[in-house]
UniProtKB/TrEMBL annotation:
The keyword Translocase does not apply. This is GvpL/GvpF family gas vesicle protein. The keyword DNA repair does not apply. It is found in: Gas vesicle. One of its GO terms (biological process) is gas vesicle organization. Belongs to the gas vesicle GvpF/GvpL family. Keywords: Gas vesicle. One of its GO terms (cellular component) is gas vesicle.
C-alpha cells in the first residue's frame, strides 16, 4: 500500500500534476484536494523516509517546480518527511489547519525566499557590524521580511533569509551585485529562490 508524501499546500485553484524526479524514486506529483486547498504529493511505500542528500534535494527541487510553474505559484512548503497513510488522513489535516493555511498563503503570496551568507577568510579582520549595517541598508527596503539564521561558524559574518516579492527580484539581484562589488575580500553566497520555509509557521503532524 502506498502512502502520500507531501511537498506543500497551494490554493485549490493552483492545483497541478506533473512528472518529475520526486522523493524515493516517485515519478509524478499530483494534488489531493479538500475544499480551499490542495496538497501536492507523490506516492511512497514508507511512512518514515530516510533523509538522504539526494532526496532532500529532490524535495526542494519539486517545490521549486511548483513555484515556477506557469510563471508563479504560491506554496506553503512542508518539511522533509511529511507522510500520510492515506488520502483521508491528509484531508483531515487540510480541514483542521484551514485557518493556518489560509493565513500563510495570504502572507507569502507572490513571494520567494532568498538566502545570503557572507563569509570571511580565516585571516581577515572584518568590521562585522559595519558590513551588516551596509547589507541591511541595501536589502531590507527591497524585502517583505528577513530572518537571521544564526552564525554557526566563526567565519560567518552574516547569515540571513529574505522574503522578497517576485516583482522586486531584479532589484534585489542588483543590490546583491553592489554588495559583491563593495566587499570583494569577502565570500558572498547568494542562494534561491526557495519556497518560503523561513516565513511560514504551519505545524501539522503526519498520520
Amino acid at each position: 500500500m502506498s502512502h502520500r508524501y507531501v511537498y506543500g499546500v497551494v490554493d485549490a485553484d493552483d492545483a497541478l500534476e506533473f512528472e518529475t524526479e520526486a522523493v524515493a524514486g516517485a515519478e509524478k506529483v499530483y494534488p489531493i484536494t479538500h475544499r480551499h486547498f490542495a496538497a501536492l504529493v507523490s506516492d511512497i511505500e514508507t511512512t518514515d523516509p530516510e533523509r538522504t542528500d539526494e532526496d532532500a534535494k529532490r524535495h526542494d527541487e519539486v517545490l521549486r517546480e511548483i513555484m515556477l510553474s506557469n510563471g508563479s505559484r504560491t506554496v506553503v512548503p512542508m518539511r522533509f518527511g511529511m507522510v500520510f497513510e492515506n488520502d483521508r488522513a491528509l484531508k483531515n489535516v487540510l480541514r483542521g489547519a484551514d485557518r493556518a493555511f489560509r493565513r500563510s498563503l495570504r502572507e507569502i503570496d507572490g513571494t520567494v525566499e532568498l538566502g545570503l551568507k557572507i563569509v570571511a577568510e580565516e585571516s581577515d579582520e572584518v568590521d562585522r557590524e559595519a558590513v551588516c549595517d551596509a547589507v541591511a541598508d541595501e536589502l531590507e527596503p527591497l524585502a517583505v521580511d528577513a530572518v537571521d539564521n544564526g552564525l554557526f561558524s566563526d567565519r560567518l559574518v552574516l547569515n540571513r533569509s529574505y522574503l522578497v516579492d517576485r516583482d522586486e527580484r531584479d532589484a534585489f539581484d542588483e543590490a546583491i551585485g553592489r554588495i559583491e562589488d563593495d566587499y570583494e575580500e569577502l565570500i558572498i553566497r547568494y542562494t534561491g529562490p526557495f519556497a518560503p520555509y523561513s516565513f511560514v509557521n504551519v505545524r501539522v503532524g503526519a498520520q
